[in-house]
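ARCHIVE CARD
Drawer: 12
Card no.: 0347
Subject: one protein chain, sequence and derived structure
Cross-reference: see card 0346
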Amino acid sequence: MASGLRVGRPGRPTVSALRCRWQRSYPLQRPLTRELRSAVDQPEPFRIPGRCEVVPMAFRCATCSDIHEALPHIAFDRPHYAWGVPEAERAARVLLTPDHCVIDGQDFFIRGVLELPLVDAAGSLGYGVWVSQKRENYERYCAEPDSDAIGPFFGWLSSDLRGYPASTLNLETMAHFQGPKLRPKIVVRPGDHPLALEQVRGITEARAWEIVHGYWPPQ
């Protein structure tokens, strides 16, 4: 296992291209290690803030009957699998910034934006999610973070979104890079998972608030 990696905190600058070029040769993208995957079978209790943050469009909510001023977006501060690393070991095993994560020097993740368009209002419900990347694609993004000429790159969805009957972990996605100061756009590959269908068909504003209240229950 790799060691000596430092943990950043959300809010610190993104890793530079130089730091993304590791001095060792790591394997290409592959399934997560058995140890790491089994460790997240029983994740820690959900926390706000921490694991996920609801970031504050007006609407009378059918769930709580209140008037909401703005539809918040939902942001995950790290990949789901990072929580599988014991807290005492995270400083040695996890490199984390607001846009990048590396676990054990061999599992690479980037953060992007997954949007569900609204069908009865302007805008969309946005998620800040993480997707895995194979090493060369991860390093290419680190070297050219402001380029829209790279990609799209394949990755496995590494955020478990609430409000769906089946887990969203490991859905196939493509990361589309959008240029300066924009995080990659994450598109779920077409399929029969409800998340994939909702990204294509869109959702109502009432459905969007139902999802939001799954993270931030009505008071």
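Annotation on reverse: The longest strand covers residues 107-117. Residues 177 and 184 are 4 Å apart (CA to CA).
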